[in-house]
Design a protein that fits this description.
By secondary structure, the protein is α+β, with helices and mostly antiparallel strands. 47% of the residues lie in helices and 10% in strands. Strands 1-2-9-6 form a 4-stranded mixed β-sheet. A 3-stranded antiparallel β-sheet has the order 3-11-10. The longest helix is centred in the middle third of the chain and has 32 residues. It is a peripheral membrane protein.
């Protein structure tokens, strides 16, 4: 019996030492931080799905108002939370060569095929993909895609009209998600997913599953992040997502005879990139004996193509629907701003035969300001992260951080900080009439080399959807509408509201 007790005591002691082995990192550097919990660090409530990742970083941001940075432990990984715009500029832009990795995953090797994309990839894989994928989002290609955006925006009007006629309230979060899903189906894959007519369509179900965290998902991710080396090959996403994305991609490629079809959609662009052959770039990870960067190369195989299709779908689906629905929520509570939007939409469209088009949307400046303000109050990404790749002296701090340390920008906190914004809790689109005093206090799409390459496409698609809806309808708070919608505590990377965004929708004039 004594032997068993002794073994248990030794096991508990070793477990404690293992679970707290890195928790002296910030104390040694004189950085303020909260007390830690073994294995969980400062992230226990997020890991246990009691609070979203964005909110737990925001709490740390507000807890130390006089600091330029705050220490944090994300499970066992030391993380530096930035509060100062100049430090943020240094990390994500000026000194980005130290922070080229996003560090979303606990390890660099990506065993899961769908993660081999521009968002999740780090190091050389990211640089190779960035070189190939950036040309897919030029202004010319965006303009060529716009008729597809208009087609789906006009369908949105019909769906809103039907929903408003049969109910006192409409969940605009769900409606805008279905609009976004159909847009992505057309623009990315050249298919009619029909999510606006059929909310149970396969495309819609895959989109929902990507961002639905089950108890099993949470348990799996808990082990993956607390014991990253042991569970490095455990997948993040359920198998049904990979199976459906791969099946979809292979079917489209076969249908097009593995050649660009002339549709000018995202799949065509991927096939054009594949036809260009091997991608070669200078490595950011490896050097020759003389110190020059090695050349690295990659073929755009079907798994890499599937990864890009997945992230185009996942990123566009959640971020755009979140931005548009929250903007509508704010317009419902700010009728004067809504009226100004509608007057602008009517005036601009009158110059284009009352038809939505690329040029018309580009002229809707006040609508654009409203979308920007909506994304300030509820950014799709509530936080940004970069991983330090080599020792870095933090400017003006008097200490260095090591390779492997994460740096986080709490976008939620930054966007509502009274040091940077007048009346930060109010919806004031006019604040975007003039350039910002500091570029790095507004980061809905990130900044620097790892900024979102699809920013312009996302914004234009969102503006088209808003214009289509507001030209025909007005939105008002419904009986169940909460002034500040609660965030879903299960969200990690992309934040979402809990329970949707119910609004009352009424017709302005006959469609």
């Amino acid at each position: 019996m004594l032997i068993i007790i002794a073994i248990l005591c030794v096991f508990c002691a070793l477990s404690y030492l293992y679970g707290t082995r890195k928790y002296g990192y910030w104390s040694k550097r004189g950085v303020k931080h909260d007390a830690t919990i073994p294995f969980f660090g400062n992230a226990a409530r997020q890991i246990l799905q009691q609070i979203s990742m964005g909110d737990i970083f925001t709490e740390a941001y507000w807890k130390y108002p006089d600091e330029r940075y705050v220490g944090f432990y994300l499970a066992g990984r030391p993380t530096l939370i930035l509060r100062d715009p100049e430090l943020i500029r240094s990390v994500i832009a000026a000194d980005s060569s130290y922070f080229y990795s996003r560090g979303i995953m606990p390890h660099k090797e990506l065993y899961e095929p769908l993660l081999k994309n521009l968002f999740f990839a780090d190091g050389d894989l990211w640089k190779l993909l960035r070189q190939r994928m950036t040309p897919a989002f030029t202004s010319g290609k965006l303009k060529a895609m716009f008729p597809l955006i208009v087609e789906k925006a006009e369908k949105l009007q019909e769906i809103i009209d039907e929903a408003a006629a049969t109910s006192d309230e409409v969940d605009v979060r769900d409606i805008m998600a279905r609009y976004t899903t159909d847009f992505i189906g057309a623009v990315a894959f050249g298919i009619d997913s029909d999510s606006m007519k059929n909310e149970d369509s396969l495309f819609r179900q895959v989109g929902k599953r990507i961002f639905t965290i089950t108890k099993w998902d949470a348990s799996r991710n808990l082990f993956k992040f607390i014991f990253p080396d042991t569970f490095r090959k455990m997948y993040i996403f359920p198998s049904m997502i990979e199976e459906n994305i791969m099946k979809l991609m292979r079917g489209i490629l076969k249908q097009r005879n593995y050649k660009p079809s002339g549709r000018n959609d995202f799949v065509d662009q991927l096939m054009e990139l594949k036809q260009k052959g091997t991608i070669r770039v200078e490595s950011v990870e490896h050097k020759n004996p003389d110190g020059s960067p090695k050349l690295v190369e990659m073929e755009l195989d079907e798994y890499v193509m599937a990864g890009q299709m997945f992230i185009f779908f996942a990123a566009g689906f959640e971020t755009s629907s979140s931005a548009t629905s929250y903007t509508l929520h704010e317009l419902a509570f700010n009728p004067e701003a809504q009226r100004k939007c509608q007057q602008e939409i009517d005036k601009v469209l009158s110059r284009y035969d009352n038809k939505l088009c690329y040029e018309a949307v580009c002229e809707m400046k006040y609508l654009d300001m409203c979308l920007k303000e909506g994304m300030r109050l509820f950014p799709s990404l509530g936080w940004l992260k970069r991983r330090c790749e080599r020792a870095y002296a933090v400017p003006g701090a008097g200490f260095s951080i090591d390779a492997g340390v994460d740096v986080v920008v709490p976008v939620n906190g930054l966007h509502r900080d009274a040091r940077h914004w007048d009346q930060p809790e109010r919806f004031l689109p006019e604040r975007f009439e003039q350039p910002l005093k500091h570029k790095f206090v507004y980061l809905p799409f990130g900044e620097g080399p790892r900024a979102c390459v699809g920013e312009r496409l996302g914004r234009m698609q969102s503006l088209a959807g808003l214009a289509a809806l507001l030209r025909g309808f007005a939105v008002e708070p419904a009986a169940r509408t909460r002034r500040e919608p609660p965030r879903d505590p299960t969200t990690a990377v992309v934040q979402s509201v809990l329970g949707g965004i119910p609004l009352r929708v009424r017709r302005r004039h006959p469609l």
